[in-house]
Each structure stands twice: as structure tokens, then as C-alpha cells.
Amino acid sequence: MTPASRAQPASSTATPHSRIRAGVGGWTFEPWRSNFFPPGLPHSRELEYASRRLSAIEVNGTYYGTLKPASFKKWHDETPDNFVFSLKASRYATNRRVLAEAGESIQRFTESGISELGGKLGPIVWQFMPGKVFEPGDFETFLALLPRQVDGRTLRHVVDVRHESFMSPDYLALARRYKVATVFTDADKFPSFADLTGDFAYARLMMSEAGLETGYEEGALDAWAARARQWAAGDAPADLPMLEDVPAQGKPRDVFVYFINGAKERAPAAAMAFLNRLGFTPSA
């Protein structure tokens, strides 16, 4: 893949961090109890603590099973007003041979009580297996099944496609037609392309290193903060691979950046170092 020329970097004026959310995957991870959470913190208060030092969390548990509305309401009540949850949609909707048959699973997930999160409901992530090949007709039918709202609340969708067949202008056109965003990842094992297909940007950074206190080198975190500002300002980072030379819309957009996978024990430190570069102030 040859990167196309892109828009010029945004101006040096910093984008308010309120448009840029960053965090980790989940909040229950044993190693974090020795390097992130204070000693002796009750497990029941880990979300409360994490949500005051990060601005978003991507929830993985919703991928594996259906939760109760009360769980989403509890998360809402335990977190600050400006916090956001991205939810991984049910694997039963995406891990199937014929995506056009996913309607019931999609409905079961979106009507499971996620609207209890209120304004804290962020993008819904539809993650596909690495072996799932892009079949235009079937994939379009799947996108058409994604509801635009639930209980009167607008839903935002992002797809995490992991097969190289999605690196296609046909896929980009389809995702844009349905206004569905595409995950960008820095992982070597998955196809990485930063073409914007929705009205927000979504990055999953998966290359953290255990030997680095913040998972990423200082310069790498500086670069990701700069890219996030460009996305938020309506521009497109010139140093990320893209399939097409499509001008950025020029409109401010929301940005979601998750430090996830890789050396997971370093994820909170990476996210906090990233947010610090954006002027984010942890909640009391």
C-alpha cells in the first residue's frame, strides 16, 4: 500500500481535549492493582477511580455476553459527567458466515439497556475476526441493519475490520455511504489504514512495550497527541497510511483513542501520559 498525499497539519492552536477521549480497555485487570490503582482500593471502586483519571473506557465484556440494564445504569452513576464508554457489540452479531442474518443479534444487543448510559454512551464497536473477508453485498446488508438510534438516543457505529480485503475503495465507499467509522490500529498484525469513513475518528493503539513506563516512547506519544488534535480539528494526519487521497471534511470531529492490548499493564500510564499532552485534568 502506497500512502497517498494528505491534508497539511492543523494549525499550532491546540484542540480542546473535550473533543478527544482516551482510555483503556475495561477496568478489571490484576496487574493494574499494583501499578495503577492505589493499594487496598476495593475492587468495587476501580471504575470510579479509573474514570477520574481517564476520559473514556472501551468495554470488552459486552462482546462476550449480554448485560442487564442495571449494569449500564450503575456505570453511568459511578462516573463523571464528561466520561464516555465505547461498547464492543456482541460477537454473535459479527462472528458469523452470513452477516445478513445478524439482525436478531444486533437488536438483542442494542436493546439490552445500553441507553441507560445516557450521554455517556460512546461509539459501538463491531469487531470482526481476522479471517472475515470483505463481501460487498453481505457487508452492506449488515451495515443497513445497524440501528441509527435506541430509545431516542442517536447511536454511533465503528467497525473493526481485520482482513486485508477491506483495504479497498469499495469498502471505503460503502462505509461512508452508511456513515460508519473505521477503526485505525497501529498493530502490525492487522491492516492499518486511516481513511476516515464516519464523522469521528477511532484509534486502537496496540503496540505498547512492557519495558517502557508509559508503554510508548515519549516521542511516539507526542506524535499521537498531535494526530488526535488534527483529527479533532477536521484535518487528516499526513504520516498515517491511507488508501485514497480524499480531503478531510474540515469540520471538527470527536476522537477516541484507546491504549489496548500489547503490554496491557502499561495501558493506563500510556493513556494518562497521552491525555496530559492534551491538557486533560483528572477529576477529583
- Which word captures the global form? globular
Q: Quaternary arrangement of the chains shown?
A: single chain
Structural class of the secondary structure composition?
Answer: alpha/beta
The total count of helices amounts to 10
How would you characterize this protein structure?
The chain has 284 residues and is α/β, with parallel strands linked by helices. The N and C termini lie far apart (46 Å). It contains ten helices and ten strands. Strand 5 (149-150) and strand 6 form a beta hairpin. The protein has helices at residues 32-35, 46-50, 61-64, 69-78, 91-94, 103-110, 136-145, 169-177, 218-233, 267-277; strands at 20-25, 56-59, 84-88, 121-127, 149-150, 153-154, 157-160, 181-185, 200-205, 254-259. Helix 9 (218-233) packs across helix 10. The strands form two sheets. Strands 1-2-3-4-7-8-9-10 form an eight-stranded parallel beta barrel. The chain has a two-stranded antiparallel sheet with strand order 5-6. The chain is globular and about 50 Å long.
Quick synopsis:
With 284 residues, the protein is α/β, with parallel strands linked by helices.
